[in-house]
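lol ok so funny story. i was supposed to be doing the assay writeup but got distracted and ended up predicting the structure for this chain instead. priorities right. anyway since i did it might as well share w the group, maybe its usefull for someone
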Amino acid sequence: MTTGVVLDTTSATTPDPVDTLRFATAGSVDDGKSTLVGRLLHDSKSVLADQLEAVARASSGDSPDLALLTDGLRAEREQGITIDVAYRYFATPRRRFILADTPGHVQYTRNMVTGASTADLAVVLVDARNGVIEQTRRHAAVAALLRVPHVVLAVNKMDLVDYGEAHFACIVEEFAGHAAELGLPGFTAIPVSALRGDNVVTRSPAMGWYEGHSLLEHLESVPVTQDAASAPPRFPVQYVIRHGPSRHYAGQLVSGTLSVGDPVVVHPSGRTSTIAAIDILGREAATAHAGTSLTLRLTDQLDVARGDLVTSGALPPAVTRDVQGAVCHLADRPLAVGRRVLVRHTTRTVRAVVRDLAVRDRAGADSLAANDLGRITLRTAEPLALDDYADVRRTGAFLLIDPEDGATLTAGMADLSGHS
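and the output, tada:
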């Protein structure tokens, strides 16, 4: 019997009843992604009555077109495709959710990168009639590139293949091979029919051979990663505030925990000190956790400026001028070797030059075009304190900026595997 769980044994974990899961959806054009999201919202009773009435009025058929719950732009409704990232917030008694419904067309790959960059889980949708296609492989590559902790393969339109178990198993096997090539740690496969509601919120009697969770049950039970909390402490300095003879350093603790008395290192200078005080919302605190905005005061009067990174613990970042990583090119203007750019990393911005690049699926290409996935090597004018993106997302991510007009060019994820 097919369970629907492939290379993943985490789905049965009971979650904290008040936690939040951030997840993104992706699928090729006409795979039914917007309908799936609409069904999920509708059947979980997360849609207000007036929203349903508005959708019913805009629908052309006898029943409401659930895709209209997410395809909110006029151009999306006219073309019948998703163009922008649509964010939706909903909750069940077991968990809160932040949903990023991302476009499926290759032209909008950059929008998927935006939506999935902070996700704990990605739902990759495929049409059961078509199986794994090039865009499916591309979406899986983006999930692997962004190190999304959990991936769901939702095989949609099972009603159009007579709910066949063998058909589902064939698609799962093909996707599993591609996932292994990409280095995805695992995925969970669920057969669904978004149009009919099969296995979206409740399990379907039409697929008695399937013994796994419905999509919502899986979303409610999958563990929410706590990478930021367990990662090494990282505090990018955003502002320096003078208060009498002392200096307070303001910013957000993006990972780990800091406490009064902890020894710290200020990068890139490498100078050391100790935390003398922590203020949160104007009140002194003994400890601060990841995600908290605060001010720090050190025991020593160091030359600390905006863009410096305060760290603690035995796992320091790599301080380097040679940056390598995976990238997704976001701009319409191409990016070529030799191009001078600005690198924005946390609160620090430095000048750099593109030393080398490679484009996925376009061997020999000498430039990155819009929506291209690839790898890049940069040489920066000043050192950056980087973590591997796989270890700490916030301090492993960077953006390339056009120095002439400030336009965002490329999103990057640092890879320190070759750093010495």
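The CA atoms of residues 351 and 381 lie 5 Å apart. Residues 165-182 form the longest helix (18 residues).
back to the writeup now i swear
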